[in-house]
Amino acid sequence: MQELTHYLNGEHVKGGSGRFADVFNPATGDVQAKVPLASADEVARAVEIAAAAQPAWGATNPQRRARVMMKFVDLLNRDMDKLAEALSREHGKTVPDAKGDVQRGLEVVEYCIGAPQLLKGEFTDSAGPGIDMYSMRQALGVTAGITPFNFPAMIPMWMFAPAIVCGNAFILKPSERDPSVPLMLAELLEEAGLPKGILQVVNGDKEAVDAILHHPVIQSVGFVGSTPIAEYIYGTGCAQGKRVQCFGGAKNHMIVMPDADMDQAADALVGAGYGAAGERCMAISVAVPVGDETADRLIDKLVPRIEKLKVGPYMAGNDVDYGPVVTAAAKANIERLVQSGVDQGAKLVVDGRDFSLQGYEDGFFVGPHLFDNVTKDMDIYKTEIFGPVLSTVRAQSYEEAIGLAMDHEYGNGTAIFTRDGDTARDFANRINIGMVGINVPIPVPLAYHTFGGWKKSVFGDLNQHGPDAFKFYTRTKTITSRWPSGIKEGGEFNFKAMD
Ligand code: NAD
Fold first, then answer.
1. Nearest residue (CA) to ligand 1, atom 17
2. 384 CA: nearest ligand 1 atom
3. Contacts of 402 (CB under 8 A, 6+ apart)
4. Which residue is closest in CA terms to ligand 1's atom 36?
5. Is 281 labeled as catalytic in the residue annotation?
6. What is residue 490's predicted lDDT score, i.e. its pLDDT?
7. Position in ligand 1 atom list of the atom nearest CA 458
8. In this structure, are 237 and 132 located in the same domain?
9. Which residues' Cβ are closer than 6 Å to ligand 1?
10. What is the pLDDT of residue 438?
């Protein structure tokens, strides 16, 4: 049995707590590795190393730090196949999807190459007589991030690339479900020229997270995961005086107007609802056709497409549409919610409950499900299922449809499919959700924009990546300097406006 490690000071370090978690191959159900779960002492050791390394890195000029990112991009491309295979083996997603996971992280690394420009401060010449005023962005020091299982390459890179290029050290606590790729990324960054100790990977569970939250040297904590944990981390981290941003769960609605291209809408729903087995925070999990006639047409288009989906292990080739879910517990939770939908009166139009794959009976595969006639009070509507289950809620009008999305507690992403520009503009303007697609089902912004939801999908002020990341990972310092020839007038006691 493979025993995974932590990555400290440029070395793989065995776990010392005596606690381990199983890492599965979701396609076969086999335990393929053990991951160590760090104690508070092991977290403290990582912080100590990071704190010793950070000042020199923070003093390195931004262009040199950016060059490390440049080289890192090359190495990610060089090792893309290897990274994707390792990712699929632990997560279960298909290899092309795993490459997308790496690619979307890589694009943020590319954006970070612009650090010299992005970190430039502001300067006011002659703000007063003989007075110049300037502001600069300085690194925070030691920063940390806690990441979810569903994007084990992308989300760590969204955090550590901007943190590091801004001059911070970063402690990554990846998901204990799929920790191998984060360890590989740390090795690659070092190969790219990052000094030892600047990126540390500490594997673990709640004990390591709590140690991060309570460590006085750690200045900021980034978190991506489920909403209850996001809320806990935000509250605890802020109470400890840290800068915290947390991104939580989702229930993304896609509104289908009567004038939409129904084939396009159905294709979009199938990809966005079932891709990665629905284990995406930007998955569409609720379809909202407007009007019964639209709903009937949509369901007619969806059913054959869903029944044709090819579910299989990542090793079965690139025409597999989606793979297993991450653990047996995740599978059981999805099955429980599907049953609750049936019990609470939703119509199960495509029933994936008897799904089984020959040769992979112990894998965590879940067949695709489609519900119709879902209502607001049902658990399948209120809860994030995080599985291949699409719920259809029939709305009788556009107002009812937009109201549904607006009233839901989550506000990560949403989409509208229509041919009418007026409706689309109204939707984009009024909706209280962070990322909006117009005839685009998974509107994940590119690296140079920012990513973040609203409502219970986020806790904190700044979004991930793009310019917000450079704000989150730096502190502004503003200097007022005077070099006059006559500084002999005596003290100034009033709080004066500049002349
Ligand atoms: P999770 O909340 O179970 O775990 C996320 C991280 O928190 C992991 O590193 C885990 O070890 C840690 N953790 C788990 N329980 C903890 C506890 N009690 N105390 C402290 N730390 C704890 O989430 P997950 O299952 O890995 O990921 C799926 C969730 O992430 C979904 O809800 C999904 O919507 C969300 N997600 C959100 C975004 C976004 O940007 N909004 C992106 C990806 C995933």
1. 206
2. 32
3. 255, 427, 430, 431
4. 225
5. yes
6. 67
7. 41
8. yes
9. 146-151, 173, 175-176, 205-206, 209, 224-226, 229, 247-250, 281, 384, 386, 412, 453, 457
10. 98
Q: How far apart are the first and last CA of the chain?
A: 73
The number of the ligand 1 atom at minimal distance from the alpha carbon of 227 is 32
Claim to verify: residue 304 and residue 227 sit in the same structural domain: no
Q: Is residue 319 part of a domain?
A: yes
Among the options 112, 166, 246, 281, which is catalytic? 281
Closest CA to ligand 1's atom 22: 206
244 with 126, same domain: the answer is: yes
Per-residue pLDDT, averaged over 437-452, amounts to 96
243 and 347 share one domain: no
Number of domains in the chain: 2
pLDDT value for 493: 73
- 97 and 219 in a single domain? The answer is yes
Does residue 493 form part of some domain? no
- 491 within a domain of the structure (yes/no): no
| Residue 227 shares a structural domain with residue 109 | yes
| Amino acid 495: pLDDT | 76
The CATH number of the domain holding residue 275 is 3.40.309.10
Mean pLDDT of all residues in the chain? 97
What is the mean predicted confidence (pLDDT) over 188-214?
Answer: 98
- For ligand 1, mutation pick of 209, 326, 454 (most atoms within 8 Å of CB): 209
Nearest CA to ligand 1 atom 34: 249
Q: Ligand 1 centroid vs 191 CA: distance in angstroms?
A: 29
Residue 498 lies in a domain: no
pLDDT digits (tens, 9 = 90+) for 371-421: 999 999 999 999 999 999 999 999 999 999 999 999 999 999 999 999 999
Asked if the model's pLDDT at residue 492 lies above 80, the reply is no
Ligand 1 atom nearest to 151, measured from its CA: 43
Range of the domain at 292: 252-438
Q: Over the stretch 34-48, which tens digit does the pLDDT of each residue have?
A: 999 999 999 999 999
- Do 341 and 380 form a contact (C-beta atoms < 8 A)? yes
